[in-house]
Amino acid sequence: MARVSRRKQIAAAQGVPVDELPKAAVLRIFRTALYVRLSIMDTRDRKDSESLQTQIDYLCGYIAKHPDLELYDCYRDNGETGTNFAGVR
């Protein structure tokens, strides 16, 4: 199947004529999810580790520097195991 140009759709969305839309200016936006986690070493000594927030800040800074990335969601793994279901019914 042949590829179809989306220049007309992009031009209409931006409100400019197709011939004024430069080919190189078309930028694909990638929805990006963050996955941050605590290691056993981070959680062994203290429960209030700032490691998760540090990772989130670093990754959000990376996304901010790349216009083709858009933050979709942030997934956090705080080191709790799924094998301990005490109190869960």
UniProtKB/TrEMBL annotation:
Source species, domain of life: Bacteria
GO terms of molecular function: DNA binding; DNA strand exchange activity
UniProt-recorded name of the protein: Resolvase/invertase-type recombinase catalytic domain-containing protein
Lineage: Bacteria, Bacillati, Bacillota, Clostridia, Eubacteriales
